[in-house]
Amino acid sequence: MDGILRKDAVYNAIGLAAFDLYDEVDFDQWFSTTLLQELSIKDPNYRVIRRRVAWLIGQWARIKFSPELRPALYGALIPLLQGDEDMAVRLSAASALKRAVDDFQFSSEQFMEFLEPAFSLLFNLLQEVEECDTKLQVLYVLSFIVERMGLAINPYSQSLIRYLPLLWEESAKHNMLRCAIVSTLVRFVRGLITENLTSFLCPVIELCTDLNQDAHVYLLQEGLELWYAVLENTTSLPPQLLQLYRAIPSVLEFTQEYIPSCSCIIQAYILLSPQQFLAEYGESVVASCLNLLTDVNDDGMDAIMQIIETAIRANASLAISLSMPILPKILLHLSNWDYVAPWLMSKFLVIVCRVILHSRDIFSQLLINTARDKSETFDQFLDKLLSVWLQVMPVVPQKEKRKLFALALSSLLSVESNVVIAQFRLVLKNIVEALNDIVDIEDSTTQIDSLMVSEEFTISEELESQQETENDKRQKQLMESDPVYNIELRSYVQLQLNSLKYKVGESGFEELKRLVDPEIIEQCKLYISL
């Protein structure tokens, strides 16, 4: 026994000093010639060494271990998980397997043949251990396997799905453990079919986000993350999941810390079922956003603008109607650039441009009402708005936003506004600069809008990746109705300029052209006829 303990001490030292011994130890050879033999010795006293060797392999697996030997590593560790093995050995093997799976060199193809026995044995171990923290340790290993193997785990997941509610109940008095369990559940949701888990997860999310429960101190952040993961990966919106939204207004009032998380959740709801969600809770969403506008930091303001934009993109008519209380506030923010960062001004401008492209009449009425509240004329307010617009647009780097701004600017050219006509030089300059960024000129006769969804590269082809969530797919499907991706900027500008020329007459249009720098006119002629 003394020899076994001395060997255990030596192996322990080599494991603890793995980084320092990197150049001194040929671990691949040692593993193949010695350590595998150590694991094959089944003497009762030798369980001390089997446990230590499993731990040692885990220490070196992420430091110095050849990818070619990983199947041998899995083949060595998985038998140590069997029920007739000592519990300490089984737990050490589970931890070592977790370290091997949680490595940048991990290959799902190599692990595929070991997936069924590993998952089955780990699940048996999860059921056998009694302490909550030990259950959590094993669950953590399972969660990494689920995360790494993705949909391949589904054939073996049903028993675990049935067991998770029981595990949650067993941890009722341990909030810190429940916090870790919720974090682990996020990985399960992203790897398993969410519909199978929704009936269990909704009460979990409800508990985590209920501010009247003491547990929210430990569980709120992880609960929001789990909530978003469920929405990301579901394909339907059952009543139980929809009704969870009722917790969001209270969370938004609780602290600004959770505004970005809540924004992501609200946007996921909108993308999942725009009509159903906005009809049920749209007014509540707008009311919460309106309350936050008076006292929120820039990141929080950004999150609010993302909610409004997503709603308009998903269902413009309903979203704009619901957003009427907040849209004047956005216009006021745009007209006061003295204290707002340019990147945030661009967020406000995105909302305004989407309203313009949906309905210029609604935009005009908004301007009339907002100007009246400020005791200004329509033209005065529009002039301030347009001046800020023309200053913000050149400093926006994103092509999608620049195209959106250019489309909306082009739309204003045909409204017969003296303010727009007076700014024609800068309006055309900004539109031409957007065309320069967005249009690819392949030859003298071929010009391609780089943001258009072409026949050669369709959205449906993009959706084929198994790595994408259902929410990712919904976001890409939303592109099909987005003016940024389905309206060719060059043709749209030409149409609006033709309309302007018709309204002001040939001589009037020539007068406007003379106000524009000749260089801009020449660049413009590359894309459209003047």
TrEMBL record:
GO terms for cellular component: cytosol; nuclear envelope. Transmembrane segments: none annotated. Residues 179-525 form the Importin-7/11-like TPR repeats domain. It comes from the Eukaryota. InterPro entries: ARM-like, ARM-type_fold, TPR_IPO7/11-like. GO terms for biological process: protein import into nucleus. This is Importin-7/11-like TPR repeats domain-containing protein. It comes from Menopon gallinae.
